[in-house]
Here is the input.
Amino acid sequence: MTIRRASVVLLVLIAVLLCAPTASAHTELTSSTPKDGARLDHVPPIVQLTFSEPVDPAEVRVTAGGRKLAVTRPDARHPRAVAVAVPKSVGAAGKRLTLVWRVTDEHDGHATAGKLSFQVRAVAAGPGDEDAVPAPSRMLRDSVTAARWVEYLALALFVGGLGFLTLLWPQGSEDRRARTVLTFAWMCGLAATVAGTGLQGAYAAMGSLGAALDPATYADALAGEAGIARAARVLLWLLATVVLAAVLQGGEGTARSPGWRVGAAVVCLGLLRTVGMSGHGTEGTHSGWGAVADLVHLLGISLWIGGLVLLLTGVLPRRRPDELATVVHRYSTLAGVSVTAVAAAGVVLSWQVLRSFGALFDTSYGRLLLVKVALLATVLLVAQRSRSWVRTRLDIAVLLRGDRTTVRPFVYSVAAETGLVLAVLAAASLLVTAAPGR
Here is the structure.
């Protein structure tokens, strides 16, 4: 992918955001009855909450003074509204009634929290009378981000690695280093998915890191649409064991088998889709386009990163002239297509989530997205050096039968590109746990 083409894609991204309406976010509270801050003569028996998206009453938790209140659906025709029953015993005259709410997004499992305060009989209350808005511990938040980064990396290595072997390097299925990369990716992917389920459950409950080990946390995390996607992802990683074991045992013959390729493609697409269901791609008014863009985005980044790692750890150390002549050149083409797909899908996802140019600068999510774009632009500069070597030096390296000195600059360039792409993955992990409208 040339710098000119990358610049065009980035300009299109900016133009789309300039022409888009205001930003969207996770499920947020849009209004309440009574209104927040209202002065009341008595404790209201019912408080109605209206959110920005349809919510499941089971996913809405409201407490007053640490006491959990009953949440119901007042009218089935209004899926965004819930009714909270407030017993008289939770409030008293001359006090401030504080309701702390937390809602879990039914699509991606992310949690949002806040509070409402009502002054009963117009008597001011001291600051100690209000409950604090629940928030997960910093260690838990960092653990969720780390688990997501490991999961993304494992997915990219596994899916991209299998794609690299299938499309470009079937004989690599018998290479020890390539087999190690695939096995390591599978182990990390399964472990990160299982651990991430508990961590996400604890995060949604605004709990502590220790809550991630509680069986009840896993039960809550596996409920709803996001929970079904997580359970399916665990099952797909287990099913991937069959795909991996087959190619490890059968080697090149299996890697060239149409039956194995179909099975591997189905498992990989399933993993990509279920991972995408936990992101922001399904938010907004065009969730279908967002889902397709998310799948293309993940597939492109997987083929790019997985190919880079196998190229760096498998093909280049062997320095075989025939492999350099075919695999390196074909991967250069595949990487160019993958990066173009990643950038194009990124335009759609950015429009789907942010929907305004101002959100790039006014929200922490937008600023983090700009950091990711800057990292991606840096990667493209390094990748341009790699493509330049392929155009000008690859034939010489083949004629010199993989001369170490001739190949070394390309190895360094690929290593730098790989390291920077890992930083892009880290930024993506932070974006997934951030609220777009904040």
